[in-house]
Design goal:
single chain, alpha/beta, 6-stranded antiparallel beta sheet, 16 strands, globular
């Protein structure tokens, strides 16, 4: 176990370049490994694995506990002694004092494991919104866990069976909702979950945190309270998350969310350093340029702004490394932007960056939120007519941005209930990507008897009655789109260069408050995040607040025509597809041809196919040596 544990921990060295350690309890057959990014208490007193005074409890912990100082005061009043001033030591003593009951008291981002020799149990837990990842597997050799899948490979030498249903979800969503991963034995501990393991087997798993809308919190605020509370709660969250013994910087895209975070951060740190990206050659048609807005905000707030310039060719070259670093075949170029900005910030001495992630998921802002409100113009039609709208929209010229958006708007229009809400998260029609599999894989998927949207539909089935369709969609944003997509890639790509990213919008108090804001103050006609925009008018320029919606991305359609053309020809060749046995070569070749001619827009589906094959080559074909170089090599 010791050698495999060391090799697994070594594959996480990028996450913790400052220190590392192992704790092995041979009698119990327990081993814990940790690599440390020192942010609070840079002294040896913060070393992990951290042991209790009597050596009976050992902790490995990834993340930050923002209210650790308040918790420490309580523990000191009870007689607990502290050697250093880290939040890790507070977490350890809080467990000694309260056990599992401590979980709801933690305000922070975390994944941790607590080995309690007295009880013979291992407690593993993940923060309520899933900011920090935690993967695990149960095998004949026992229970294994890690922050990244690649670290589990030395501990799972035989467990490489593909999870075809999860791959189906990666292809449909471009990410995988729920606890699945591409490797069948490996699962994600879900946001707000905890598990007790005894003698190498999961004894109990439970949800310790539920989203406020799921708990039945009522949206009961009037307009004035909603506006005042938005400022108060966001400011408090940002100030709370500035705690660190190292420099803290911020992402600044020039969008509302990151700009709002910087506006409040500079109140405590007027010299906060901000970072953004410039895409040389511009974005695809229909995407707005962020950089002028980022400079506008930096000038308005009087903060510095460092810019990293990247061209499409460089991003395309890094695609393979991105998939390895992500551990999952997420088909989205945006993670590379997080990497480049994080690397630039690290070069300037930062170890922590504040992010605006989560604003759209709390207050609306995505196109699908507006699309949901547009349903009033056509959802009253009979199901057959709605399905006809879907069919007509799918035949429009997909080379035009408006046609692609219209096709997405009516995709699944014939569906009803929660399935129609979940369908908004799909990138393509399930029937279209089902047709890409080999007959053998299609049989496996039929035998699984689970629709691609099943995790989302099942989750909403237990939601309180009386929630609007928009509130139900926001539940899916907060539970799945955040944790299984945005937060996963933000964590993996920033930690690739030893950078921690904090997300003030996901402060538990702010999440609770946002649930009390009625949807009429969130999505008002075409204006998403209306309450946040109104609240930030005293702090930011109006042209920034009401700018066109955009996001970190890449010129993917240009990639497919130029920079990625050879990679597509190699990885998605008939020979390559036959060797893998997942996708039907003639159908994939037809998809490539139709996309190249402009008859359809299948760029993201092709990117997903690419990422799945890259992932399989690096993780399934892994032979026990070092996997393909990581993005930071």
């Amino acid at each position: 176990m010791g050698d495999a544990l060391r090799r697994g921990a070594a594959l996480l060295a990028h996450r913790g370049p400052d220190d590392s350690g192992l704790h092995v309890d041979k009698t119990a057959g327990i081993g814990l490994g940790h690599t440390r990014l020192s942010i609070l208490d840079l002294s040896p007193h913060g070393h992990q694995p951290m042991l209790s005074g009597d050596g009976q409890v050992a902790l490995v912990f990834n993340g930050e506990i923002y209210n650790f100082r308040e918790l420490r005061k309580e523990l000191e009043a009870k007689g607990y002694d502290f050697r250093g001033h880290s939040d890790t030591e507070v977490l350890l003593n809080l467990y000694l004092d309260q056990g599992e009951a401590m979980l709801p008291r933690l305000n922070g981002i975390f994944a941790f494991a607590m080995w309690d020799r007295r009880k013979g149990t291992l407690l593993v837990a993940r923060d309520g919104l899933g900011v920090k990842p935690l993967y695990y597997a149960e095998s004949p050799q026992g229970f294994v866990f890690a922050s990244e899948i690649k670290a589990l490979l030395p501990l799972l030498p035989q467990g490489r069976e593909l999870d075809v249903l999860s791959l189906h979800r990666y292809l449909g969503f471009l990410w995988c909702p729920g606890d699945g991963t591409p490797i069948k034995p490996v699962r994600k501990l879900q946001p707000g979950e905890a598990m007790v393991v005894r003698q190498g087997r999961s004894e109990r798993c439970w949800t310790w945190y539920r989203l406020p809308l799921f708990r039945g919190v009522q949206a009961d605020l009037d307009e004035a309270s909603a506006l005042d509370g938005t400022v108060t709660h966001l400011r408090r969250a940002v100030h709370r998350q500035l705690v660190a013994d190292v420099p803290v910087g911020a992402f600044l895209s020039g969008g509302l969310d990151s700009s709002a975070v910087v506006a409040f951060a500079r109140e405590l740190n007027p010299k906060i350093r901000c970072f953004t990206i410039e895409m040389a050659g511009g974005q695809d048609a229909g995407a707005a340029d962020d950089l002028p807005y980022a400079r506008r905000v930096a000038g308005h707030l009087g903060v510095s702004l460092d810019v990293v310039t990247i061209d499409a060719g460089r991003m395309a070259q890094d695609l393979e490394g991105m998939v390895v670093q992500l551990d999952e075949p997420l088909a989205d170029p945006a993670p590379l932007n997080v990497l480049y900005i994080s690397r630039l910030a690290r070069q300037h001495g930062m170890k922590v960056l504040l992010s605006g992630a989560g604003g759209d998921d709390l207050f609306t802002g995505y196109r699908r939120h507006h699309a949901l409100l547009l349903e009033r113009w056509w959802r009253w039609l009979p199901g057959g007519m709605r399905a006809g709208l879907d069919k007509v929209a799918s035949r429009l010229d997909q080379r035009r941005a408006w046609a692609r958006r219209l096709a997405k708007l009516f995709n699944g229009a014939g569906l009803d209930g929660d399935a129609s809400i979940a369908n908004y998260f799909l990138w393509a029609r399930e029937a279209d990507f089902l047709a890409l599999y080999t007959p053998e894989v299609r049989v496996q998927l039929r035998e699984a008897r689970a629709r691609v949207v099943q995790p989302l539909v099942d989750f909403l089935a237990s939601a309180p009655e009386g929630l609007s369709r928009l509130e139900r969609m926001l539940l899916l944003e907060q539970r799945f789109f955040l944790a299984d997509h945005n937060l996963i890639y933000t964590d993996k790509m920033s930690m690739a260069v030893g950078m921690e990213v904090r997300v003030p919008f996901l402060d538990p108090d702010l999440v609770d408050f946002a649930a009390r804001v009625p949807t009429r103050y969130k999505q008002r006609g075409r204006v998403g995040k209306w309450v946040l925009k109104q609240a930030m008018e005293p702090f930011l320029p109006r042209d920034v607040i009401y700018r066109p919606k955009t996001g970190f991305g890449a010129p993917l359609r240009r990639w497919m025509r130029h920079e990625l053309r050879d990679l597509v020809g190699d990885l998605l060749s008939t020979a390559s597809l036959k060797r893998r046995g997942l996708f039907d070569p003639p159908r994939v070749q037809r998809l490539i041809a139709d996309n190249g001619s402009g008859r359809i827009d299948a760029n993201y589906t092709l990117l997903s196919l690419l990422c799945i094959e890259i992932w399989c080559r690096q993780f399934v074909d892994y032979s026990g040596g070092r996997i393909w170089r990581t993005i930071n090599s």
